[in-house]
């Protein structure tokens, strides 16, 4: 029996009101430990005579006291609902279907909310919703909580009411109408039927008004070509899954070419099935995601690409247009002949911003009767016209514009002649900018009209002709904002809100479907007819293109990076810290140069003592305009005589200081042409890059990324092209998979999770990286910490170049090493293999915690903070972790991240976790880790457990594909498949038995629950 006796340490304790007892009870350490005497500053520390024993005693006591104090967490008061909304259950996520288009990016998405707070973007996988979120759209959830947003309207820089704004705009419009002066609505591509109708009604009421569409990154030449050939302003929506041969001339269709979202269809054809896979030729100057995925990549200047396009046109149409001689002409003719042989299974695309080039693309695909090329369901997401924008600029300079109303554009930043625009704006009687931020344009207009984020707005969108999507708010507006459409309604004298207008207008666009059904699904798919071709003299276009003369000097190709795109989200720390898939550099844009040009202009890259990457600065000059102190990256695969520079950087207005990085490439975007003649000169100083991957090549380590050719894959046994590594057991060579250092247990009971990664399908797009950030509260650490190799990404996408022409030749070179020294010895040979080839093959490999069944991290943790579950997940108990980092040292995959600092509520890391608004994005199901603990991929255990509990509550088994991780859910190419291998009907159970399956570093014997598929290449 337990004793109820009470013991006293002194008689004084019998006195219930004793102040002495109360004081002692609250003061464990009666005397203050004098640690400050010898730990206070450097001088006292150096003069201290304290013994090591005393030091450890003091530190031990003070640490214990601090630990006890830390157990008493801060008090956070919860305020309950007065009337709880019926549809909100605390702890349960709600999902809302919506379609998003911001003028550059678009997708059909689901928005995850918790207690009315949007916290994550997922892909909408309902039938008909074919456009998945890229990295920027996944990150856009954080832009909702941007503390630098414009929080109320301003007139002449001072806060104002919406009534004052409406009155001022109405008065200006009325005055312009009376005086017969121009009223201009300058917007990005709207792609919204209801908004376009509103604009048309405004123009009908105001005869002097006109609508000018301006895309910051122009697709005008392709639009002009399609309009000439088919009579409507749109872009072709290609279906690469229907092509057996793809030829791309400067089109980064796995990046942002024509809006992107082509990776899903492309990946379907790249996974070998029934002994076949699509073949892909790429002609390009910059190294792109698309070039990295190609079977044959030919580096080529844009001037030569134009000649190559005419040569291909000649082969396909039996034409005889005279062309200039170009390098690698044999490869171009070879690709053209294979394209002709492929017929309707072939397709050609081009990113050359030249109307004649785009006309040839249409002609070639028409001649092929390409199945991947269809004018049914054309893309409506680019409508800008260079000609009309230039006319507007001329009108502004001439003082012909009375009232200028802008929405979704930032010309003071994106125009190459922004200074001239700023000066001309002073001649306008009233200028209005509807903007999320007080950006470069909003800060100089008469009225800065604060607009809501798309997650706070109603809208509709037609991404492709025949489809209709609704954008619905998932949270009430956080600030005093108003939609551009509501102001237009007011100017038109219409009653009601834009929601009412939208709902009334939708009935004509969703024939037969109900509003609630479309709102629930987020997308409606209707019928669409093919565009009618007109008579076009394609031969004349080919002749003009063939006679285009190459300018003397270097070519500068301006492009958009996977991270920042056109720069709308430059204040988004997730995107700034996102490593570029090709260069692996974050927090910067830079000019890319070939190794030959770098040597010619004495430009350098090198790694310093702490492992950081440094590079030269350069000055770029285009048509008399200088762009100074541009960092230089020597890029393998860059065509000699060409340079690359990304848009979206160099912004200053409404950005936190940490996000004001890079240089503004728009300043060189003359005539909206992405190719400029440039001169480059080395500048003084050296730039410090934040590069997350210092090793560039595999150096012949074929067990990390296994690959083979389609011919070998089809003709030989899997043991030859997917060889199991060997180890020594009792002095005999045996398969590594047959040897265990630990006793295994039965894993066939219950769930057992595996993640499959297909190297053939992975394009390196990085959507999984941002999705992981959002789901798991991964902190942003900033450029300096990334440079110190302290990035916190739970998932990385390793990018490897071949040293020789191919990875296979790397292996041959390694096998040919003879001895240790000399060029043919392993020391000299491996030194050479550290350098990528001038036109290397590229491979991407996503790597996260491998969740090893025999995990080396678990055996060395002294406090059992990391342990294994029966379901195959490696757990981390953060409150047990003491930060020894033994686990990181023992991990062969190097996937564990140590919290060097407190990244939450710390002004030293002034990102979203440092302000109350930014922390609204945090997932309450995942702990925010503190300083001094180790963290890594959890295989999204909170998601798997939620799925299990949901099925249990509903009294059913879990269906295949219900189990997801953040990365597998975000992967639009199908490269990542997650599931329960104990479910024989699951897709992952089939994949684990596939001949292409292998584990990373299989010879180590860790038995991972993540597995990969051998990369198969065409020869």
TrEMBL record:
Annotated signal peptide: none
Pfam families attached to this UniProt entry: Fer4_11
Domain 4Fe-4S ferredoxin-type residues, every copy: 753-783, 840-871, 872-901
InterPro entries, per database record: 4Fe4S_Fe-S-bd, TAT_var_transloc_signal_dom
PANTHER family, sorted: GLUTAMATE SYNTHASE [NADPH] SMALL CHAIN, GLUTAMATE SYNTHASE [NADPH] SMALL CHAIN-RELATED
This protein's name: 4Fe-4S dicluster domain-containing protein
């Amino acid at each position: 029996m337990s004793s109820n006796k009470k013991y006293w340490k002194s008689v004084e304790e019998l006195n219930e009101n004793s102040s002495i007892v109360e004081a002692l009870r609250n003061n464990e350490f009666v005397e203050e430990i004098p640690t400050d005497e010898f730990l206070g500053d450097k001088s006292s520390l150096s003069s201290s005579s304290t013994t090591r024993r005393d030091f450890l005693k003091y530190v031990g006591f003070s640490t214990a006291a601090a630990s006890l104090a830390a157990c008493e967490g801060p008090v956070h008061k919860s305020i309950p609902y007065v009337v709880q909304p019926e549809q909100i259950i605390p702890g349960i996520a709600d999902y809302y279907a919506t379609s998003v288009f911001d003028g550059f990016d678009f997708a059909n998405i689901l928005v995850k909310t918790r207690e009315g707070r949007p916290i994550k973007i997922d892909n909408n996988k309902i039938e008909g919703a074919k456009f998945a979120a890229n990295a920027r759209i996944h990150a856009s959830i954080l832009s909702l909580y941007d503390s630098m947003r414009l929080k109320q309207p301003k007139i002449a820089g001072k806060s104002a009411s919406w009534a004052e704004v409406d009155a001022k705009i109405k008065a200006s419009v009325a005055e312009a109408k009376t005086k017969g002066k121009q009223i201009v609505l300058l917007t990005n591509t709207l792609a919204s039927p209801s908004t376009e109708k509103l604009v048309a009604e405004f123009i009908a009421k105001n005869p002097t008004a006109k609508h000018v569409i301006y895309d910051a990154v122009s697709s005008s030449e392709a639009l002009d070509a399609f309009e000439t050939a088919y009579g409507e302003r749109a872009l072709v929506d290609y279906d690469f899954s229907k092509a057996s041969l793809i030829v791309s001339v400067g089109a980064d269709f796995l990046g942002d070419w024509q809006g992107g979202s082509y990776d899903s269809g492309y990946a379907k054809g790249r996974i070998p099935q029934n002994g076949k896979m699509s073949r892909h030729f790429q002609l390009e100057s910059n190294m792109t995601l698309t070039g990295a995925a190609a079977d044959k990549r030919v580096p080529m200047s844009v001037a030569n690409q134009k000649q190559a396009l005419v040569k291909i046109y000649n082969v396909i149409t039996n034409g005889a247009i005279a062309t200039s001689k170009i390098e690698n002409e044999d490869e171009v003719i070879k690709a053209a002949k294979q394209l002709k042989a492929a017929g309707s299974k072939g397709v050609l695309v081009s990113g050359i911003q030249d109307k004649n080039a785009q006309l040839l693309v249409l002609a070639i695909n028409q001649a092929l009767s390409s199945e991947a090329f269809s004018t049914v369901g054309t893309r409506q997401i680019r409508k800008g016209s260079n000609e009309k924008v230039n006319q507007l600029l001329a009108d502004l300079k001439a003082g012909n514009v009375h009232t200028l109303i802008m929405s979704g554009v930032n010309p003071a930043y994106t125009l190459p002649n922004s200074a001239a625009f700023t000066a001309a704006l002073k001649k306008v009687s009233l200028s209005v900018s509807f903007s999320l931020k007080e950006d470069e344009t909003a800060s100089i207009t008469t009225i800065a009209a604060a607009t809501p984020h798309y997650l706070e707005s109603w809208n509709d969108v037609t991404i492709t002709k025949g489809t209709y999507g609704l954008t619905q708010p998932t949270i009430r507006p956080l600030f005093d904002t108003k939609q551009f459409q509501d102001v237009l309604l007011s100017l038109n004298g219409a009653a009601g809100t834009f929601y009412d207008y939208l709902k009334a207008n939708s009935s004509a666009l969703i024939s037969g479907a109900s509003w609630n059904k479309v709102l629930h699904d987020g997308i409606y798919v209707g019928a669409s007819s093919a565009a009618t071709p007109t008579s076009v003299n394609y031969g004349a276009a080919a002749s003009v293109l063939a006679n285009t003369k190459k300018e003397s000097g270097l070519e500068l190709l301006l492009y958009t990076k996977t991270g920042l795109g056109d720069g709308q989200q430059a204040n988004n720390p997730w995107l700034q810290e996102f490593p570029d898939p090709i260069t692996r550099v974050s927090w910067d844009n830079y000019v890319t140069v070939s190794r030959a040009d770098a040597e010619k202009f004495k430009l350098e890259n090198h790694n310093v003592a702490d492992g950081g990457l440094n590079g030269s600065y350069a000055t770029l000059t285009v048509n008399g305009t200088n762009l100074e102190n541009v960092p230089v990256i020597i890029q393998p695969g860059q065509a000699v005589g060409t340079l690359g520079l990304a848009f979206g950087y160099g912004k200053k207005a409404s950005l936190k200081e940490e996000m004001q990085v890079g240089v503004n490439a728009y300043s060189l975007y003359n005539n909206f042409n992405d190719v400029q003649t440039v001169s480059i000169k080395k500048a003084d100083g050296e730039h410090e890059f934040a590069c997350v991957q210092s090793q560039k090549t595999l150096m012949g380590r074929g067990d990390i990324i296994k690959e083979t050719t389609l011919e070998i894959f089809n003709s030989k046994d899997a043991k030859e092209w997917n060889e199991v590594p060997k180890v020594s057991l009792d002095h005999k060579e045996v398969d590594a998979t047959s040897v265990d250092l630990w006793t295994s247990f039965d894993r066939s009971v219950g769930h057992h999770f595996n993640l499959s990664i297909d190297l053939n399908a992975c394009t390196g797009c990085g959507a999984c990286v941002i999705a992981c950030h959002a789901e798991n509260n991964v902190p942003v650490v900033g450029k300096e910490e990334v440079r110190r190799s302290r990035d916190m990404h739970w998932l990385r996408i390793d990018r490897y170049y071949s040293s020789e022409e191919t990875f296979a030749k790397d292996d041959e070179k390694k096998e040919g090493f003879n001895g240790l020294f000399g060029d043919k010895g392993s020391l000299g040979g491996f030194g050479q293999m550290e350098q990528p080839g001038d036109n290397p093959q590229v491979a991407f490999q996503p790597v996260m915690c491998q969740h090893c069944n025999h995990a080396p991290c678990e055996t060395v943790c002294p406090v059992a903070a990391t342990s294994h579950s029966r379901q195959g997940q490696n757990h981390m108990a953060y409150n047990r972790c003491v930060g020894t980092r033994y686990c990181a040292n023992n991990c062969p995959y190097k996937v564990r991240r140590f919290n060097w600092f407190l990244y939450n509520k710390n002004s030293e890391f002034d990102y979203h976790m440092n302000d109350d608004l930014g922390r609204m994005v945090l997932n309450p199901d995942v702990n925010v880790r503190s300083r001094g603990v180790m963290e890594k991929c959890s295989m999204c255990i909170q998601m798997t457990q939620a799925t299990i509990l949901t099925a249990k509550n509903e009294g059913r088994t879990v269906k295949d594909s219900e189990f997801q991780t953040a990365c597998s859910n975000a992967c639009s190419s199908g490269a990542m498949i997650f599931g329960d291998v104990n479910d024989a009907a699951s897709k992952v159970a089939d994949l684990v038995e596939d001949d292409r399956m292998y584990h990373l570093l299989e010879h180590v014997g860790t038995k991972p629950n993540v597995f990969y598929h051998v990369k198969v290449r065409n020869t």
